[in-house]
Design goal:
Elements: E1 2-4, E2 12-15, E3 19-22, E4 25-26, E5 28-31, E6 36-39, E7 42-43, E8 47-49, E9 52-55, E10 60-61, E11 65-67, E12 71-74, E13 77-78, E14 82-84, E15 89-92, E16 95-96, E17 101-104, E18 109-112, E19 115-117, E20 120-123, E21 128-131, E22 145-146, E23 149-152, E24 155-157, E25 165-169, E26 184-187, E27 192-197, E28 207-210, E29 212-214, E30 223-233, E31 244-246, E32 248-250, E33 267-272, E34 281-283, E35 292-296, E36 306-312, E37 315-321, E38 330-336, E39 348-349, E40 358-363, E41 375-381
Parallel strand pairs: 1-3, 2-5, 3-6, 4-7, 5-8, 6-9, 7-10, 8-11, 9-12, 10-13, 11-14, 12-15, 13-16, 15-18, 16-19, 17-20, 18-21, 19-22, 20-23, 21-24, 22-25, 23-26, 24-27, 25-28, 26-29, 27-30, 28-32, 30-33
Antiparallel strand pairs: 31-35, 34-35, 36-37, 37-40, 38-39, 38-41
Amino acid sequence: MAVEIDCGSSIAAQVNAGTLVGMGSINSATIGAGAGFNFNGNDGGSLTSSGTSTIGPSGMVAGPLAINGGVVTNNGVVSGALTLVPGTLLINAGTLGAIGAAVVVTNSTIINDGTIYGTSLTVSLGGTLMDNVQGYANPSSPGSINVASLVINGIFIPGGGTTGTTKVTDYLINNSEAGNPAGRVQLNPGSTTYFEVNLTNAQVNTLLLSQNQGFGPSQPNKAINGGTIVIDNVGPAPFAAGQSFQLFGNYYNDGVLGNAGLNTTNSYPSISPATPGPGLVWDLSQLIPQGIVSVIDPASVQFSLTNSTSVTSSNVVTEFTWPANVAGGWLQQLNSTLTNGLAATNWITVPGSATTTDIIVTNNIIADPNAPGSTIFYRFVYP
């Protein structure tokens, strides 16, 4: 059963069964579970949907869109705030013009094949955001996601699960720039972001462009404690040493991230799979700030850590040096017991070690077999 409205009206439509269709105008619509909305006209107020709703290509919703269940497909324009509850799906092939501070809650999904504008968009743990828009040849056009901050705590699939491009920037719906700080992507610990690589494609990998990019918490010292990046090789050939992939870039200068905020967090992501293949390792030394992840043969990294030690009073003074070819890595220290040794996991970054190849460390703990707990280990981390 369908109810069709093709004329101008000011009714507040309540649909508990059947489907509301037409090209006219209404004041608002509430769609119950099991009911439908397939409207190509003007909704001058809100749309609250618990069923299956489609906003036609000429359709407009002037107010908020509340998805309280089921699936909503937007092919038109929605100009109000967006809310979702668990178990819902939003497919956006049109324009979401003012989502506010929207949240993709646990067990909900947004698939974006259009344009989104708002204050912020947060993907909760257990939520999913897939951005299908690809190919931004015009650097002065809005992005697919235009918010001050895109915060990922759950699953993020830029490029629509292909080797396409997703662009997060600060444009307003009138195509003017909102200004900084804006257009930031934050991949928090616990999040998972998927990139594809196919060397046979013209664009060989998924590219995420933004105005600022963070991989985890802001912190004074470097550490691998950010979100997880999954790099999926969907091409016919395996990864090989010497390959590099620019996964992140600055929207305003042709994908070269440069100084766009990456270098302010000191947090590096984990990469999955753990290695690109047998006998290979991931190289993250160019991730901050160039946005590049490389594949290398570990034998090609010439590394040695040398130290000289002296004891003054109750302190151990240790000087560590390492080669210039691994500059950008950092020294870590583990204070442990003689019993636990390297089984302990409380490694900490030695402050200042990421910006030098020579550092002096003063320790107040001296290795003493009569004082369990006085054992110190060091290791060098090369991203």
